[in-house]
Amino acid sequence: MDTLNLTDIIHWFNAIRNLPENQRYRALEGMWDTQLHSKKWIVDELNAILSSDSRNHNVYVFGGWIGILSSMLLQRSKFAINKIRSIDIDPWCESVADTVCKPYEMDGWRFKARTADMCEFEYEHNLSPSIVINTSSEHVDQNTYDVWYDSIPKNVLVVVQSNDFYDCSEHIRCVSSIQEFKTKNHVSNVLYEGTLDSKNYTRYMCMWIK
Ligand SMILES: C[S@@+](CC[C@H](N)C(=O)[O-])C[C@H]1O[C@@H](n2cnc3c(N)ncnc32)[C@H](O)[C@@H]1O
């Protein structure tokens, strides 16, 4: 996944431009090189796992932030995506993510951001999840993660990322190894596990069938 659509990139910039000046840097925090590489990692590994999968997937992204992963998935997945929902507890994220993914939001809400706590979220009727992604697992305590995980239906493809960046005050559930990651996140039936060097810290990711 090396190229992105110009139309989509224009909407990324619009999302920044539309914000009040004192909020623009906040949106740019989600666009660091390490952030983009970690999202590309998800797209690449999902493409490898699902390249010959014929289902039309409903994807839920938790801790979806400003919608960059959803935009990348909608542009570059080699598997069919019906709809994506991006859930974040921070209401500020909703309109930014909807602008980042504007072409898909306008296409009958193929993409839509939602504001909710992941552990209280109720999956939409008629939009049962087939892929559930959590890129913010280090931002929630173990109880929140466990309640969130329990609510995922069986046979869903689960993707979780975490990291060992303990120095960030918002990171309350980091891990130091892939083994610790697997234990804390209840990983079983592994389809992919790996690490990504992100300059000052390591990211961890597993993909598995619940
Ligand atoms: C700052 S982002 C970073 C995530 C990840 N490290 C990455 O690189 O993509 C973390 C997001 O998780 C969201 N978040 C934290 N707790 C949450 C919860 N309980 N439910 C949903 N979203 C949550 C925050 O609002 C924030 O937008």
Unreliable spans are none
Count the strands?
7
Largest sheet: 7 strands, mixed
State the order of secondary-structure elements, H for helix, E for strand.
Answer: HHHEHEHHEEHEHEE
Give the ligands present.
S-adenosylmethionine
* Tally of separate helices: 8
Mean pLDDT across the residues is: 96
Relevant terms:
alpha/beta; globular; 8 helices; seven-stranded mixed beta sheet; binds S-adenosylmethionine; Rossmann fold; about 210 residues; single chain
Folded structure, characterized:
This protein has 210 residues and is an alpha/beta fold. It has one domain: Rossmann fold, CATH 3.40.50. Helices cover 35% and strands 24% of the residues. It has helices at residues 6-17, 24-28, 33-50, 68-76, 92-100, 102-105, 142-150, 178-184, and strands at 56-62, 80-88, 111-115, 131-134, 157-163, 190-198, 201-209. Strands 3-2-1-4-5-7-6 form a seven-stranded mixed beta sheet, with helices on both faces. Strand 4, helix 7 (142-150) and strand 5 form a beta-alpha-beta unit. The two termini are 27 Å apart. The structure holds S-adenosylmethionine (SAM).
Give a short summary of the structure.
This protein is α/β, with parallel strands linked by helices and 210 residues long. 35% of the residues lie in helices and 24% in strands. Helix 1 packs antiparallel against helix 5 (92-100) and helix 3 (33-50) packs across helix 4 (68-76).
